[in-house]
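Sample 1 of the test manifest.
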Amino acid sequence: MIEVRNLTKRYGDKQAVNDISFKVEKGEILGFLGPNGAGKSTTMNMLTGYISSTSGQILINGIDILDDPIKAKANIGYLPEIPPLYVDMTVDAYLGFMYDLKKCKLPRKAHLKEICDLCKITNVKSRLIRNLSKGYKQRVGLAQALINNPPVLILDEPTVGLDPNQIIEIRTLIKKLGKNHTVILSSHILPEIQAVCDRIIIINKGVVAADGTANEIAAKITNEHKMTIRIEGPTHTSEDKKTIVAALKKLDGIKYVRADMEREKGIYDFDVEAEEKTDIRRAINQLCRDNNWNILMLQLSDLTLEDIFLKITMGDVIPGAEKAETQEKEKPKFDLDIKDGELVATEVEEEAKEVLEENLPADQSFEDDNNEGGDE
Amino acid sequence: MGAIYRREMGAFFTSGVAYVFLTVFTLISGIFFFFGVITAGNTDTSPMFGSMFIVVLFLIPILTMKLLSEEKKNRTDQGLLTAPIGLWSIVLGKYFAALTLYIIAESVVFIYSLILAYLGDVVWTTLLGNYFAMLFLGASFIAIGLFISSLTENQMASAVASMLALFVLYLFDSIVSNVSIEFIRKIMLSFSFYSRYVEFTRGVFNLTSVVFFISVAFIFNFLTVRVLDRRRWS
């Protein structure tokens, strides 16, 4: 239904979208996931012909959007990030305008009524769009996209600004629409994508970082047995930390150990990761008993989509992790990262470096937002 | 094109632009009509039309200022540019909406002509000549205003820039008259909107001037299409 080949968009020096390729089949709901400024909106704007690509090809229903834009656009219903609403019109007049604009041939009254019912905007039909709440505006935007019953729906952050009830409503609606439409929707809200989409494409810094179902992506990236443990040592000083890290590292099947923050006075948290499918909880318990340490907390960290997202977008995993083989190769790389953490924990003066380490990810994400958010 | 035309016509009236435009137009042309024609005691409407150049110059930017600038600012252009229609349909829909309102305003002269017909004999050929001269002038000015509106997101900037541009066209003759080389001056004068327009108000129906005004309208609509098209590539 939609085929994208080597799509690239450059704004001057800035590479907004870099060589993206994917395919969406009929009746599929595809989720675009990525931080602000990742290139989601740019990609969608190219798919709908609002802006043109620097290079690459887009086929909508087999029609190239550059060769025959009018025919290709007739197949698309688009809800941009900011719904294109004329605030000086009533909902009714606006939908009538969009009906004419799209040269819709379906029976006018019945079609518009059906859409209004579907989007639950029948009760505001005669009101000026200016006076509608954000949620209703969003729904009018969605209604506009549905006019002429296009086989492809492209929705850019459709639930932004809605209250939780409305979000659920819209999600249900999108799921319903996905039965007879091909839907692409973007979001940076992970549960939403997880709840609605059959397939997810994670975009980061203009490239496809992962492509697959939520479970597939999770399986490729995680498989780690991770936990956070809070252990109380005998001396309540940083001495404890060094001893405990050293001892933990000696356990069988441990992949890495990293001392985390001092959560309680003189007591540290440790991030521990074991080899795949190794349960080390008992071994750790035994170790603590032998040394007379107290385990104050043990928390298994299951990777949620959120963690995956963070991992991918923070650059822990390099893009191209789609295949199992590459994932194998990646592991040492991943270890390397962690070894740094370990070094910090065992060798150098902890405090200063720890602070640095804690701040780093937050800084990075902040920078991303700043640099790229505006261009989307 | 039809959908955009109808929406713009509606927007002119809901936003009040149409009322302002029609009121000011009727008021000023009425003043010129009263002092230039009635109290002067003649039935020739040419003095009134002669003065209308400067009025049209300030009024047309009010019509065109937000036609495209507002679309860009409110991101409603995204709806238009992703709809299955061509750029020409978008531009011409807006262009003809503004032109229609202009023609409605201009047609008030037919009321004046009825008043004149009551008072004396109307020279209908001159009146119609003047009417069409003003129509063609407006047609080219609207295209220029629409083009300037496509260049900015700010409707006030669009209005001011359009007024300035049209004012320069008004002063064009006096600017050109300073050119000392006879040959160049003549060529430049052939681009003068004002002398072409004034020629009409003197009762000369010059077909090349008609072609000139229509060409200007076409060229600026074409440039507007190019601006919209180029924005996709930047």
